[in-house]
Amino acid sequence: MQVLFTKMQGAGNDFVVLDETRGCLGLSAAQYRFLADRHFGVGADQILSVRPSPAPGIDFEYLIHNADGGEVEQCGNGARCFARFVRDKGLTHKDSLRVQTRGGVIAPRLTPDGRVTVDMGCPRFDPADLPFDTSDLQAMPRGAAQQWPLALGAAASGASVWIAIVAMGNPHAVQWVDDVDSAPVQQTGPLIANHARFAQRVNAGFMQIVDRGHARLRVFERGVGETLACGTGACAAAAAGIRLGLLDPEVHVDMRGGRLSISWSGAAADSVFMTGPAATVFEGRIELPPNP
Ligand SMILES: N[C@@H](CCC[C@H](N)C(=O)O)C(=O)O
C-alpha cells in the first residue's frame, strides 16, 4: 500500500502528517514505526493522523503515534503543525479551530505572523492524572505545588531526583537542573521515562531557569528519546515553574530546536497557551510494508 504524506516540523520536533479526512488508513503499530524510521522510512518523532470532525462543535480529530508505534494522548508541537496542515491543504478556511485529541479538546489559532497559538487546556498536578504511584513517598511542598522524590536504579544506590509531575493531556515529570547542556538527559531520561511508578510511562523534562521569564528545557520523550523540542513538555515545565513560584505567568522556553512562548495565569481552571512555529518540510509518497 502506498500513502501520501507531509513531513512537518515545529521547533525541530518532526512529524509525518497523514490526511485521513476522506478515510481511515488503518495503519498498524509496525507501519507507524516504519514511517518514523529515519533509515528505512520517512523519519519522524511522531505520526499525526488528521481525521474529520467526530462531534458537533469540533472541527477535526487528530491521532498521535510516537516513533515506537504507540498511540498517545497529546502533542503540543504536533497541534501547531496540524493547524498549519489543515489550512495549507484547504481542509478548512478557519483561523481558529477546536480539535479532538485522546487527551481532550484543544484550540489552535493561526496568528498573522505565521505562528500558531494553542489553548492546551488546564494543567493537572494530581498524581492520579498521570498516573504516578506515590506509595511510601513523602512530597516536599514548595510554593503552591509539590515536588516528589524519585529513586533511580536500585534503592541501595541512593540515587534519586526531585520531580514535579504535570498532566498536559499526557504525562510529564519535570526536574530542575543548573545547566541544561550538561544535564544527564541520555542517562537518567530513560530511567525516568520507564520508571515503574509511572504505569503509562512518562516524558522526562530537564529545566534550567534562566530568569523569571525565561527557561531552557530538554525533554526525553516517552516512546521516542530526546527530541529537539516538546510542546507539552514546555507547557508542563512552565506550569510547574509558575506553580512553584519560580517563573512568571509569561515564559519563553528555549529548546535545542527553537523557542516556544508559554502563558498560564496559575489558576487551576485556566488554560495554558503555547505559541510557536510550524512548517512544512516536504511532501511525498511511500510504499508501506504489508501488515504481517
Ligand atoms: N513532542 C510532543 C509530545 C509527543 C507525545 C509524547 N512523546 C508522549 O508520549 O506523551 C509535544 O510536542 O508535545
TrEMBL record:
Subcellular location as annotated: Cytoplasm
Molecular function, one GO term: diaminopimelate epimerase activity
Residue sites binding substrate per the record: 13, 46, 66, 76-77, 170, 203, 221-222, 231-232
EC number, UniProt record: 5.1.1.7
Keywords: Amino-acid biosynthesis, Cytoplasm, Isomerase, Lysine biosynthesis
Subunit structure: Homodimer.
Alphabetical list of PANTHER family matching this protein: DIAMINOPIMELATE EPIMERASE, DIAMINOPIMELATE EPIMERASE, CHLOROPLASTIC
Function: Catalyzes the stereoinversion of LL-2,6-diaminopimelate (L,L-DAP) to meso-diaminopimelate (meso-DAP), a precursor of L-lysine and an essential component of the bacterial peptidoglycan.
NCBIfam families: DapF
Name assigned to this protein: Diaminopimelate epimerase
Source organism of the structure: Verminephrobacter aporrectodeae subsp. tuberculatae
Source species taxonomy: Bacteria, Pseudomonadati, Pseudomonadota, Betaproteobacteria, Burkholderiales
